[in-house]
Amino acid sequence: MATQIRGSTLLLGGQAFAVVVNLAIQILVVRYLTQESYGAFAYALSVALIGEAIARFGMRRGASRYMPFYEESGDAARVAGTFVLAVSTTLAMGLAVVLLVAGFSGAIAGSFADDPTAVTVIVLLALLAPIEALGSLLDAVFAVFGRPRAVVARRFVLTPLFRLAVVALLIAGDQEVEFLAGGYVATGLLGLALYAPLLIRVLRERDLLSRLRPGGFSVPAREVLGFTVPLLSSDITGAVMTGAGGIMLGLLAGPADVADLRAVMPVALTMGYVLTSFGVLLVPLASRLYARSEDTELNRLYWTTTAWTGVLAFPFLIVCVVLSEPLTTLLFGERYEDAAPVLAVLAVGQFVNTATGNNGVLLGVFKRVRFIALTNLVAIAVIAALMLALIPPFGAVGAAAATSATIVLLNAVRQVGLGRLTSIRAFDPEAVAPYAAMTGAGGVAVAVELVLSPPTTVSVALVVAAVAVVLTVARRALALSETFPELARVPVLGRLIGSPPPD
Fold first, then answer.
1. Are 192 and 300 in the same domain?
2. I need a labelling partner for 124 at 20 to 30 A (CA). Which of 142, 187, 308, 484 fits?
């Protein structure tokens, strides 16, 4: 258990570089572009995000599941066939997305339809759908074949640095938003180009390259599609939760509202990196425990990692809520002062999603595919209805509220399903202390901020105090001194997390 937690936190640290660079990109772009231009760019990115989820068609998940399975069975023809199916499906769906966006760009543009620049940006960024979908698929292929460094290099190092270079050229050359859109597409293509020689080498090493010819492979379409199609709703739901707000605001409101929402969303989404990092090592370990019918250990694994994700996400929540206004203006300038409540509302939803852990993933481990698909479809319907109701009167705040409310509802339903359809408890008594501490400390800090509106220095002190209280109370549930004994030996920190175990 300690090894899994340590490994997950190391993965989280590995993503920190990408988080910092991407946040720097966001700040520079938002500050450089006018609110209308950034609104158009953000709207186009939202369209591309939904398009990418469609283009993926669950093929990353299918490749991760079936390529190693067939390789272990010694069936090289089906390994190659799975690869061919995944790549061809991704490219075909991606091309369909591009053609659809290009053909109906005027209708898709919504309130931006009268702006030729905005329409051009939408069509340009639609090209990101197949590019990013194919990159995601190749990430999975390299992970299957034991090339994680290639994934880390492309996804977390090179792509962010390439995009930072594009933004630097944008600002230095006093360019327009079309340059930024074209640069994003170019960096995506460059990332794929860097993958190409390594992909050829890996396929040759696995004796698969020679099979990529007519008659050399066998496509297991029924098995792969039977696995991926029911779970396609998960990819689309995730994209909808992130991208629907920008699209609906573009259709029902205006550029300024799109800009307000999309400017602060990456800040709120930072919590998602915590959940993703812990999920990487949770899935294989949970699958092994499930196969062994070790229900008690599986429950402990879920609730220990969930407590970790909640506690690690809590500082982000409390900063985004209590310090939403000074943080927003510090990062994006006075133009985005109205986006502060948007950030606070989005942060609540993202925290609930992170603090309930990988409940959807665990439902998948228990093969509750029908339940997952049904809840995802309901969530899509709910968020659409809420946005139609809340955006006209409340603009960006309404879109944020609709997103967060849907996330809370979806996770509540998943948690109930976890308790009823699996051997995992919907809530574990061992988790009472950290969650009570987060609720109490966070509630007090927010109440003081709302009632007294103290100076920023006092608000910062409230945030620090709330985080210290949560860490102190949660240290037993997190098993800090056992998991990270070296930290327990640090003089000040050691008193917070407890005594280290004996050598």
1. no
2. 142
